[in-house]
Transport permease protein
Amino acid sequence: MRFFSDVRLTYARAVRAVLREPSWIIIGLAQPLFYLYLFGPLLKNGGVTRGLPAGTSSWDVFVPGLLVQLVLFNCAFNGFALLSEMRAGVLERLSVTPISRLALLLGRALRDATLVVIQGAILVGLAVPLGLHLHAGLVVAAVVLMALGVGLSCLGYGLALVLRSEDALAPVIQGFSLPLLLLSGIFLPLSFAPTWLDDTADANPLRHTTDAVRALMLGHGRSWVGIVVTCAFAVLLVIFGTRRFHNTEDLRIT
């Protein structure tokens, strides 16, 4: 079908841009690696494996949260790249071609999601010698994280089209990403939190994503609720981004 061909072409163009600067793959890993090597060891004797099966390491609890953090920061902030293309007139020129605007959005978002999966694989590979155990659920966890990445990228692109300024986009993205991060149990399971904080975090979709990815990578536990919530959340974000792409007439910043 024409639509899927358009998505493939947009995806290939976006991937080529990354291949021209492959160093960005490592740059995007910098923050998670700091947490992995400088914060992770502090949890070794912190009791984070309390209530989990014998043999579970603190890395089995901590690394899944780092993967969710990786997706959040590396996808939600991609709107800045779109603003650069708008300012250069690239997006405006692409919008007058036969390629659909939805394909222009999804091709980029799929590239972003693919990139974070590659970065996540590197992060997992570096965590294995530290004590992370691998389970078959890791494959499903990668699919869940990719779906989240597509949704967050669409959110970032949609907000860029609404705000049309790096100065406005930065505080907005930071403003919603910080509470999402703190209420997701990325660093510590929210089972350690007071009841009021645990209940508040239930309203955060990323809390359920983190729980699902953690359960999948631990190889046990309920994960279907988190998978469903993540997919529904991603669909809503894609709808938001799609509407912004269709309803924005001026795709150039002068």
